[in-house]
Amino acid sequence: MKALASDFDGTLYFEGDHMHECDLQAIRTFQQQGHLFGVCTGRPLVGIQKPTKERIQYDFYILTSGAIILDKNLKPIYKCCMDKDIMKRLYLEFQDECHISIQAHHIVYSFQTRVDIDMHQEVIQSPDEVLVDDIYGMSFEAKDEDQAKAICQKIYQEFAQEVDAYQNTRYVDIVAKGCSKGNAIRKLRELKHIDVIGGIGDSYNDIPMLKSVDKAFTFHRSPKAVQDQADYLVDYVKDAIAMM
User: How many folded domains does the chain comprise?
Assistant: First the structure.
């Protein structure tokens, strides 16, 4: 069995609620041939369902940078949760530097109302209002890529034993130590008995995935650091499917 794991933003889904029809057709054909197609993203489930609509039926979901894997029926098959006290410490440390959201049990908690985000968010005033125990991760939105890089470095200086942080343009995704798109790919291969697995992504947080797959794809437009980790450069997801 073959499988292809795709990043979401900038790879499969684009601003303006856009997906390439050529990609969608290629995905359906790939699945009809008996192979698996799924997402491997920093987004939570609620951030995938609304923009995807009925355009794709995923065979698996690797969410929140590898903190949770769902099967095609949305049943959890793997979880890697963040300690709640660590989440609170991170909030207190960075609350004045960037916009923070928390992904917990498929709910996105935000500390301010956002109208530019294509997913429902629960607005809270304090991390103590997050009452569920399954803390999948946090997302920090910086003002630009340079600030995001600095925040990422600071997290590794002060919280390196407790969390991992992945920069995605001006965002930083934080998960429990040991969580990554790459580790989730290895877990998915084991659970689903996949023979050959490919991965495609466009940004720095996709590098752990690209290092863990049999066939690694990125785009001609991707940063050089990402291209250096890929086996193939393509223009569309459909090109990666054709090379699987």
Answer: 2
